[in-house]
């Protein structure tokens, strides 16, 4: 398949005449069952018509994604939810008022309009109303209901820049819209609104604390924080390994001086046995690390920067051919919870506690 790559430089309306043409073409592709990758405020999405079974099958095929891992349907107007959601509880309406458009996905009971292909056979549907102007316009042009998982091959880190979308999806989709770098860098927070209290199934930029402020009590799925709790995951996708770089990633947790000493020794030993080594550190400790490639993921005090950089840093280690990676650990509170959730999955839960 020949993939058309277009750039949208405007950050919002008004778009240039060429950009309007690109949106029109993207809309036609989506409406006729094709696939378009596009930027959102979280990560790049791989979009297809969410109400069309054939498009949905193509999304799974392009990503190599297991069929029981359901997709999120993206809308561009709040009122559009009525066609795909059977009934919207009060808490969901309140959450929509507080966090939409934005990086929040809600699980709600689906109507018959939503094919089971998109929900992995479930009677619920995941819905998000993104804030990114390019995403919103594209959804509108594409008919209003765009199913879009992250635009990476299944299991790889989600793409936060168009370069990595092209790397994974060139030749597999009809069009890639390059809209620059994502703001947030981590996928949306997913909350199950069919239970009371609402339950977080995937942590993200909208934290538990923020949700509680708007909704009162909110639960968090045990398996997010304790992967070995023995519980079956509630969101089907939670059981799969995710976000992994090609190199083997290990998280090292403990007092900073011990972490630095451990990582430097481990990297030296790995290098002696022929591995190319990498370290993911925060700015304050960066000068103390010694490995083939040392990357700064941000400043510990600025978790938003760490969130934005994490997937890019993981991908950059692949670009550099690094085979063994060690990373500092992060606080499991607030946004740190989302950061640690992704890092733990990327590491296949390999953690050294000092
Ligand atoms: P991704 O497309 O990679 O951002 O992942 C979307 C996530 O949403 C998947 O991991 C799913 O498990 C979750 N999800 C989507 N639909 C549902 C649903 N109806 N019930 C529970 N989780 C869902
Ligand atoms: Mg994904």
Quick summary:
With 354 residues, this protein is an alpha/beta fold. Helix content is 34%, strand content 18%. It contains 12 helices and 16 strands.
Topology:
Blueprint: E1 4-7, H1 17-31, E2 36-38, E3 45-49, H2 53-63, E4 72-74, H3 81-84, H4 90-99, E5 104-109, H5 116-119, E6 124-128, H6 133-141, E7 146-147, H7 162-169, E8 175-178, E9 189-192, E10 199-202, H8 208-215, E11 219-220, H9 222-225, E12 248-253, H10 256-272, E13 277-281, E14 293-296, H11 303-319, E15 324-328, H12 335-346, E16 351-353
Parallel strand pairs: 1-8, 2-8, 4-6, 5-9, 10-11, 12-15, 12-16, 13-14, 13-15
Antiparallel strand pairs: 2-3, 3-7, 4-7, 5-6, 9-10
Helix pairs in contact: 1-6, 11-12
The structure holds adenosine monophosphate (AMP) and magnesium ion.
Residues 69-72, 107, 119, 122, 124-126, 149-150, 187, 190, 201, 235-237 line the site of adenosine monophosphate.
Question: Structural class from helices and strands?
Answer: alpha/beta
Average per-residue pLDDT, rounded, comes to 94
H/E series: EHEEHEHHEHEHEHEEEHEHEHEEHEHE
Through-space gap between termini = 50 Å
Given as residue ranges, the uncertain stretches (5+ residues, pLDDT < 50) are none
Strand order of the largest sheet: 1-8-2-3-7-4-6-5-9-10-11
Q: Strand percentage, roughly?
A: 15-25%
What is the number of strand segments?
16
Question: What kind of sheet is the major sheet?
Answer: 11 strands, mixed
Our count of helices gives 12
Overall 3D form? globular
Bound molecules: adenosine monophosphate, magnesium ion
Estimated helix fraction: 25-40%
């Amino acid at each position: 398949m020949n993939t058309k790559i277009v750039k949208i430089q405007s950050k919002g309306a008004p778009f240039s005449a060429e950009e309007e043409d690109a949106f029109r073409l993207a809309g036609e592709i989506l409406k006729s069952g094709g696939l378009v990758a596009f930027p959102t405020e979280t990560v790049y999405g791989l979009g297809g018509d969410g109400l069309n079974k054939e498009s949905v099958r193509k999304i799974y095929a392009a990503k190599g994604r297991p069929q029981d891992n359901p997709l999120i349907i993206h809308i561009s107007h709040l009122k559009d939810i009525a066609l795909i959601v059977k009934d919207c509880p009060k808490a969901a309406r309140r959450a929509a008022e507080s966090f939409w458009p934005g990086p929040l996905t809600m699980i709600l009971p689906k109507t018959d309009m939503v094919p089971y292909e998109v929900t992995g056979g479930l009677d619920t549907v995941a819905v998000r109303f993104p804030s990114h102007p390019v995403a919103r316009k594209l959804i509108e042009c594409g008919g209003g209901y765009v199913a879009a998982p992250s635009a990476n091959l299944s299991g790889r880190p989600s793409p936060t820049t168009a370069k990595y979308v092209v790397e994974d999806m060139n030749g597999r989709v009809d069009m890639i819209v390059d809209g620059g770098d994502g703001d947030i860098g981590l996928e949306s927070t997913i909350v199950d609104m069919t239970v009371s209290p609402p339950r977080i199934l995937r942590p993200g930029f909208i934290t538990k604390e923020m949700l509680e402020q708007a909704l009162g009590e909110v639960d968090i799925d045990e398996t997010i924080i304790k992967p070995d709790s023995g519980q079956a995951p509630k969101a089907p996708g939670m059981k799969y390994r995710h976000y992994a770089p090609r190199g083997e990633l290990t998280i090292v947790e403990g007092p900073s001086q011990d972490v630095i000493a451990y990582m430097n020794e481990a990297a030296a030993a790995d290098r002696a046995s022929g591995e190319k080594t990498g370290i993911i550190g925060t700015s304050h400790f960066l000068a103390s690390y010694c490995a083939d490639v040392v990357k700064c993921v941000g400043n510990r005090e600025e978790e938003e920067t760490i969130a934005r950089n994490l997937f890019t840093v993981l991908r950059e280690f692949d670009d550099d051919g690094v085979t063994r990676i060690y990373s500092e650990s992060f606080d499991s509170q607030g946004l740190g919870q989302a950061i640690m959730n992704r890092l733990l999955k990327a590491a296949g839960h390999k953690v050294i506690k000092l």
